[in-house]
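user: can you give me the structure for this one chain? tokens are fine.
assistant: on it. calling the predictor now.
[tool input]
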Amino acid sequence: MTQMEAARLGRITEEMKIVAHDEDMDVRILMERMARGEIVIPRNKHHEDVRPLGVGSGLRVKVNANIGTSADFADVEKEVIKARTAEAAGADAIMDLSTGGDIVAVRRAVMKAVETIIGTVPVYQAVLEAVSKHEALVRMSVDDLFHVMEQQALEGVDFFTVHCGVTLSALERLQKQGRLMDIVSRGGSFLTTWMIANERENPLYEQYDRLLDLAYEHDITLSLGDGLRPGALSDATDRAQVQELILLGELTQRAWDRHVQVIIEGPGHVPLDQIRSNIEIQKSLCMGAPFYVLGPIVTDVAPGYDHITSAIGGALAAWAGADFLCYVTPGEHLRLPDAEDVHEGVIAARIAAHAADIARKRPEAVRWDMDMSQARKKLDWESQIRLSMDPQKARRLKEEGASAHEGVCSMCGPYCAVKLVQEVLHPEKNT
């Protein structure tokens, strides 16, 4: 029985109790929204030592961190360090996107190292195994792909990104319209290459019922991937992207009919003025299913700072209704991230998520900022550091720039506005 099926039967699971407690939500309200597909709890029944996490309507905005090897950098221990760094920085979920070295060993090591939920893109492993055996990704068989998904399911992976919407008809529409960046999704490019070379339909779409059987058996949440997401602002909200989203809405209903939990993945590179409409279209076409967005990145011209461009878009997207932000690291378009990139990416995405939670009037988010404001008024530096999104960095900056004047920072020193006004307006507190 999946979490969704239990919710529909009115059975409160232990996972529901934990999520309801963490979110300060009545467990029956949580259960009702899960039954409708508006909230998911990605929790593979084989995954032990993991903290249940809720994603969706009325919950705190969550943050995912991507890690993983590449063909150029394939060190298992470094990926474990990145996973632990992401968890320590406050990531709610981790996706292992490894494409180099012993990716099975990486995944298993990461799952042992952290307590967050874990996601993967199974086609990556299937393609790498096909290249290893046959020296060609296009020789991957459909059974090879499903064998990999079964293996990862048994290992306890909680959610799969599956690019079911990259179909032959969608590719035809993309080619007719024309795009600057064509396809930037790695999973989408793998499947496109395979489909064209083999003159066959996408197996994840063609054998979607087989995928649902697997997801139901292990209670894996399907993160329906946006293989045709825009990789440049000029491609945002085009016909190929929207057609894929329409199809994902249909696939969502088919999954729900089988009691399988679903997340919808979204763009990508999107200008500020199109973000809200993208969220509204997704929520309408996909019937309120949780929306998981990469960024969105709001300008193409800031390589090295894409944790910032994505945080700007992520805050607006989450305020408009997105539920799950995938972080972007500073070097997103330049290199495989290192541990420091991971830390910076998680913090930037958390800032975006928190800003949206404030705009959504979530009490705990508003209270956190109020506590910080009160600490600032009192010039209570220890409390300010403790309440910081990144306490270690806050402490380091304070100590590196220590003022020669007591009780203030070196920005204003003896001319601290807060201190001066306190002395004038509240002299009784200084006697």
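assistant: here you go. The chain has two domains: 3-360, 364-430. The two ends are 67 Å apart (CA to CA).
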